[in-house]
Amino acid sequence: MKFFTGSRHPLAQAVSSGLLVSIALFGQPAQALTTVRGELNIDDQVAVDNYRVTSGSVLNAVGASTQQIDLSPEASVNLDKTAVVATGADGIRASAGGKVTLGNQSSVVSDRFGIRLLRTGTEGASAVVTGSRVEGAIAGAGVAAGSRLDLHDSELIGSGARGVAAQLFGDATLDVRGSELSGTANGIAAYGDPTLAGAANVLLTDTQVQASEGAAIIVGDPYLGPSSANIVVSGKSSLSGGNGAMLEVVGSSSANLLVDSSELHGDVRVEAGSVADVRLQNGASLTGRLENVSSLGLDSDARWNMVEDSSVAKLAMAGGSVRFGEKDHYQRLTLGELSGSGTFVMDADFSTGQTDFLEITGRAEGQHVLAVGSSGAEPDAANSLQLVHAAAGDAQFSLRDGPVDLGAFSYDLVQRGNDWFLDGASKVISPGTASVLALYSAAPTVWYGELSSLRSRMGELRLDERKSGGWIRAYGNKYNVAQASGLGYQQVQHGFSLGADAPLPVGDGQWLLGVMAGSSRSDLSLEGGASGEVDSYYAGLYATWLDARSGYYFDGVAKFNRFDNASKVGLSDGTSTKGDYKQNGVGVSAEFGRHVELDGGVFIEPFTQWSLVQFQGKDYRLDNGLQASTGDSHSLLGKAGATVGRNIDLGAGRVLQPYLRLAYVHEFGNDNDVKVNGNRFDSDLSGSRGELGAGVAVSLIDGLQMHADFEYSNGRKIEQPWGMNVGLRYNW
């Protein structure tokens, strides 16, 4: 802030004109002076002149050009599309009771004040400016105590080296809507009136206020003594100071700033001995420093974004929030008192021990939430990080959306007396880790889900004497993996496969060799906002042997997969992270059994099936820095059971074959480990489960068959609520 001395100080000029109207600062007009008595109408046909409007008289101008206009007490001037240019004098000066109306693209330019509203006693003047431009070298407008300036859709400019857009004295009122105010020294200056106490009222709606050198708004001045102002900023307004301050309070002055719905950027600076109370409401935000602010209120989703360490005497929360700067720039907020309920948005880093910190040196009350930012970095040790200290009071703090995700684990908030810590001893698996483990353990269920029921293929082949043919299938499966596996999640798979086969010229036509290909999509859902996707593409060979005389059969499959894995994780701080990787898988499956015919077309098939699959390991990372290392994994699945069915002759060569199947399944693979940020986790789906299947195969016309199958299985670690496939085969 700049202070000026000497007889030409603009404030001295303003006070003399604003308080002592008997002192003539009108200046000598360059041309003749016209005195208006009664009512005078002028237009563009009237020569440029200076006008003095006597008490009770009115000057109306439409499309005219004038020099200075001076209103005596109770006089009025109405300008429409009129230009006022004054040199060595104010553009328009109104004494107590005077009324100024500017509209419809009028303009006022002066090398002193554009518009000056004076007072006598407690009575001031008034002006309404609409759709116009007012410029003065000292100030665009000077508004004495008891006076009022309304500015709508207009410009107000203080163009001189020390100019301000608007000077307010005492309890002057400035009501601005949809306008722009700009000055060199300040945008708006509110000064005290030594003879008439009262607070200035500044109402800014959808308005931009800027200063090229000083603060956007300044309250107080050492020359004029203490002053006070009530400032309301609403709508799409902005305050921009050349020195970074949107509001300065100096000279033992006081200010109340209410911000409603606006997004402000800049500092609030309060000189020692002065007072400022700030309140934000209805989604308003303030980004900047608060220096020596007496109180801050944050209501109804309002937000203060800190830019450095700050202190506030009193903070009252009513649904608002405080953001401790940007991520990785740790800051400290010191409060004298805290009350209400609100949110503190903070960051912490276990790996370095750095954290934002909230300290209340006096009494803390209310229910408050800490929204601590998540990170993929891993702590060096299971230590604790202190986030809050309160000297006294019964305030309570909790974490928004539960434990904070930091590295491979999530950490809870622990209270110890009047201190609150992120406790390294209370960790649980983080959603990022959960997504890594889920993708890793999903590969076997993806592979087995794609391996369509061997029972359905055998039914098809027996219905048409093992001819060459082609087939297509669509299938879907759902798996619920229990927490007993080390991680709980749900997997829903859907896909299709197709193939063709032909008898081999060996073994009396009892061997059939085929090729198959297909793709599937699996969606994984986890608790805590994590999800995963597995896109699988595969190709393989299969061979079937059936001895029609004895009923023994063998069915083998060799399949190669390419998996595209992706995870998206919703983190505890409301952000998200993602990662992806590709891997290969190869496996074989063999089923051996016997088809035994009973009376009435009924048959029974005891069988055993064994599958071995190997999956490629990968190292990858999520974009929040979480690192995962998956080694090669494998699955060895054994199955034993029996199928019971019946062949029903429908005539005309058509056969209907319903069946039921019951099997015992056991997964032997149990040494599949994953490392997340160097922490070892066991993904173990080993164990037994029961399996129940049902289906039907039917020959429709010559060479065309259709089948549909349903499966259900359940065990301690994995459940398959449903599995379905439907397909067609055509033999030629």
Written overview of the protein:
By secondary structure, the chain is mostly beta strands. The chain is 5% helix and 61% strand. It has three helices and 65 strands. The strands form six sheets. The protein has a 25-stranded mixed sheet that branches. Strands 1-3-6-9-12-17-20-23-26-29-32-35 form a twelve-stranded parallel sheet, covered by helices on one side. A hairpin with a 5-residue loop joins strand 52 and strand 53 (576-594). The chain is elongated, with a radius of gyration of 41 Å.
The radius of gyration computed from the alpha-carbon positions, rounded to a whole number of angstroms, is 41 Å
| Separate helix tally | 3
Largest sheet: 25 strands, mixed
The CA-CA distance between the termini, in Å, is 95 Å
Any idea what the shape is?
elongated
The proportion of residues in beta strands is over 45%
Q: What's the helix and strand layout?
A:
Blueprint: H1 10-19, E1 33-36, E2 39-42, E3 50-53, E4 58-62, E5 65-66, E6 69-71, E7 76-80, E8 83-86, E9 92-94, E10 99-103, E11 107-110, E12 113-117, E13 119-120, E14 123-124, E15 126-130, E16 133-136, E17 139-143, E18 148-152, E19 155-158, E20 164-169, E21 173-177, E22 180-183, E23 186-191, E24 200-205, E25 208-211, E26 217-219, E27 228-234, E28 238-240, E29 245-249, E30 254-260, E31 263-265, E32 267-270, E33 275-281, E34 285-287, E35 290-291, E36 293-299, E37 303-305, E38 310-323, E39 332-349, E40 354-355, E41 357-363, E42 367-373, E43 384-392, E44 396-399, E45 404-406, E46 409-416, E47 419-429, H2 431-450, H3 454-463, E48 469-481, E49 489-503, E50 511-525, E51 530-546, E52 552-570, E53 576-594, E54 596-597, E55 602-615, E56 618-621, E57 627-630, E58 633-646, E59 648-651, E60 654-667, E61 673-676, E62 679-682, E63 687-701, E64 704-715, E65 718-731
Parallel strand pairs: 1-3, 2-4, 3-6, 4-7, 5-8, 6-9, 7-10, 8-11, 9-12, 10-15, 11-16, 12-17, 15-18, 16-19, 17-20, 18-21, 19-22, 20-23, 21-24, 22-25, 23-26, 24-27, 25-28, 26-29, 27-30, 29-32, 30-33, 31-34, 32-35, 33-36, 34-37, 36-38, 37-38, 38-39, 39-41, 39-42, 41-43, 42-44
Antiparallel strand pairs: 13-14, 39-40, 43-47, 45-46, 46-47, 48-49, 48-65, 49-50, 50-51, 51-52, 52-53, 53-55, 54-55, 55-58, 56-57, 57-61, 58-60, 59-60, 60-63, 61-62, 63-64, 64-65
